Protein: mitogen-activated protein kinase kinase
Amino acid sequence: MVLSTAETLSQALADAIRRTREPRSDRFLPKADLDQILCHDSLIALYQKLFRIVVPQREPNDMLTSNPWIDNPSHDVIGYAQKTVKNPSRISLLALFLLDQREELLSLFKDWLSSDDAKFPSDEDLPLSADGRWLPGIGFHHWEYILEKQWIFLPFTITEQYYERVPRMCRKPFIGNPKEIKRGASGTVYKVKVAAGYWRDKKNDEYRTFSMDQLVAMKVFEDDKDYETERDFLQELRQNVSIHKRIVLDLGGLIYEDSEGKLCHSLFFELAICNLDEFLNKGDNRRFYASNGSVIAKAVDIVEALDFLHKKVRFLHLDLKPDNILIYESAEPGINDGRIWKLTDFNLAKRKIKVRSSSRERLELSNSDSTASTVPAGRGPALYQAPEIQVPGTSLASDESEVWSMGGILLVVLGFLYNPYSGAKRFRDSATVTFKDQGGERRSLYVTSKMHQW
Structure:
């Protein structure tokens, strides 16, 4: 290879790609790195060298024609650098040709630059088609390389409130491997970092692209039916004009193939600091709140969110527990401690229905305590279930049974306030009764003589 400048840029591109993630098939080149590596000064240096390289053998008539790039390497170099970066951009196409240091492709790019054709290939033409008929001058032996490597420069852009399928060859724009946060019956939640330039959010009905990396939570579902259930419920919530601010809505979703070819369904959410269960089990967290009253005010927010769910959209949550209350940092006016609590995880949520011979709205549940998608109307965790939900056979859930569950959560919070370092655990232990039935065990909160101390 003749070009030391090209070698340096090629190595910088390869290093940036290598840093993104494993496995190799998931790697991509972040736009921020691409713009930094192939900046204006780098293009000037590259073109000064590029147009001095030995060109392929020409026909005798062609050799009589002078080439300004060879005769005068500095001729309009700045203009050609601008031609590379202006709209439409050719930066990704140039990087594709540079990555493997292929002189023939760089020479072809040089010819495109020096031609008078303003419509020569650009990044908008990526991905290149397999037949290559529209792109003359590229030898067949380069196409296998191009068709494989071009996807490194085409990571998928995630757009809030969109539910899209990632093309099979397209790379997801995640920096590093996802970090597992929580594993549940319906799926697993991961912490993911989305590279700058590949996350678009909606602000005042307009979309904007973030210029910084974004940390978000991604819930990957075990079954597509679970994904559809939660997505559809959250969409229905979003359509409500008076959506409660203490209910967690998703940010959109992706459907993609994993490394083994399995189709994965996922939803994105704002990344929380922790869930309430984690908060209550670490006494040092008490220092984040000025008084017991401020903690109780957060709990009241969740009660109001549940009331909104029951009365405004007429749904039952069916999975109330501290794990499904998330704590976020917030810059909202009036939030003195900078933190808010929100209700989340609506995979089991069901619309309330009226039961015959009753004026109350209830929901008949199956006898299984599983939360998997095979259960028509699954039960939540037994520890916070109301007694009537645990009746053998079938049973009915209602607003009242969810108030019981919320009451259990509030009592655990009060235990935390009584003693931040052990109160929550002591209360759960003293109020928990273990039942043995149908060959198994289940634990539930009950009022017993052990609770008199509270």
Notes: The chain has 14 helices and 19 strands. Residues 69 and 76 are 9 Å apart (CA to CA).
